[in-house]
Amino acid sequence: MAVARDAALLAEVVELRARNEQLERALVTRAVIDQARGMVMALAPCSSERGWDVLVGVSQHCNIKLRDVAAALVATTEDETLPEEIQRELRRALRRLHAADRR
Q: Residues in the chain with pLDDT < 70?
């Protein structure tokens, strides 16, 4: 009986640790995405929602995870070069956003 209880506790600890690691990764990822959204809002200028839509659109058109698009954009503040594919699609997305605002 004690062995079964110990096994159940161990399984619960393993599951809780996995969830904790997942939440920690999500928090870090979310912060980077929010920073990138702020950068888009400053570039456009646009609302937070539209900044989100731009990032999602770039991610989808480039077939690159949103967190990776965001990380690449944020890395430009540290003198990293934005990958050409992301740069090209971001330019297109910002042009579309600007054109939509003129209508």
A: none
Give the C-alpha separation, 96 to 36, whole Å: 18
Contact 85, 62 (CB under 8 A): yes
Closest CA to 70 of 57, 46, 98: 57
The pTM for the full model equals 0.77
* Residue that has been written with the tokens 């939440």 in this structure: 23
> Which residues are CB-contacts of 1 (< 8 A; sequence separation ≥ 6)?
none
For residue 19, report the phi and psi dihedrals to the nearest 5 degrees: -65, -40
Q: How many CB atoms lie within 10 A of CB 67?
A: 18
pLDDT value of position 28: 72
Residue 78 C-beta-side C-alpha neighbours within 13 Å = 5
**Predicted pLDDT of residue 33:** 96
Closest CA to 69 of 79, 56, 50: 56
Residue 24 is predicted with a pLDDT of 81
